[in-house]
Amino acid sequence: MGDWRFEARRGGGVSTVAEVRVRLEEFGRLAAEHGVPGAAVAVAVGGEVVEAAAGVVNRRTGVPVTPEAVFQIQSITKVWTATLVMQLVDEGVIGLGDRVREHLPEFRTADAAASDRITVEHLLTHTGGFEGDLWRATTAGDDALRRLVEDEVPRLAQVEEPGSRYSYCSAGMAVLGRLVEVKRARTFAEVLRERLAAPLGIEELAFDANDALGFNTAIGHAPQGDRGIWPLPVWATMPESNPAAGNRLAMSVRALLAFGRMHAEDGRGPDGGRVLSAATARAMRAARVPVPAAPVVPKAVGLGWEVYGDGAVVGHGGGAIGFARCSTSSQGGARRSRWWRTAATRAG
Known about the structure:
Layout lengths: L16 H8 L2 H7 L4 E8 L2 E11 L4 E2 L6 E2 L4 H14 L9 H4 L8 H4 L4 H5 L19 H9 L17 H15 L3 H10 L7 E2 L2 H4 L8 E3 L5 E3 L18 E2 L1 H12 L13 H7 L4 E3 L7 E3 L4 E3 L4 E8 L2 E9 L6 E10 L1
Antiparallel strand pairs: 1-2, 1-14, 2-3, 4-8, 5-8, 6-7, 9-10, 10-11, 11-12, 12-13, 13-14
């Protein structure tokens, strides 16, 4: 997409809405220049929001992208999962230092002894020490996540001692998602809708293709021979089994922005009500474990969020075949005025 992002300014305040609008005038041109079939962006500066959209949700149908268009968010889902877990911490149901097996006795990796030492915080910070790339299909029903945790996670190698260092772990997020299901006695999708989407006023959200039919929904695009960049034959390229790590959850940039604003407002929803305690929201954005070999700026992981540089910016990305997405939040300026940005969502 090119370097269209907005940089945080130290000391002298933040980008203005006018500056954002000027930069986004290039959005459509950049999308076309880089061959992106469709993209959308929403940026909030204080209480004002600027949106832009370009291209189509599907080159086969030619339907335009709008700010309401729904795109899969993939691994950004991990921050939503972390937020659901931290709500349980706020309520005193679980603690960050609790061993996972205290609440989920069926959890274990291939090393039963090491598994008994893995804590909730280890999973939130990707320091559980076990193999993390787990997307194996289980069932297509409400028990898909349970089957993944009970049948597949126990086969994963315990590579190193829990807490040793950061290693990105989608399997760990699956375990946290299952923990949420058990504590709330609902499916992961039901809990996310009730505990996050509803209080944030989010309606443009889909967990599967059936949900997605109710919206202007983007399909992924990829190079396909003589056709060039063309729609994939299916909407979902990942199985149902790991919704907590980011397999199919889709939403509009407006929805993603509402979630980011809640975090930047220290846990307050659009109506002023509490979604998270202020202390918990801040703790999620605080660097805890360094991420080795970060390619651009020094990076650490907080409780779900990735923390960039000196901590003024947090974010998370997500991608799968045909999709790429990024959400970032920044706080800066002498008056601590806050601003948020949701980077381009693209099908391609």
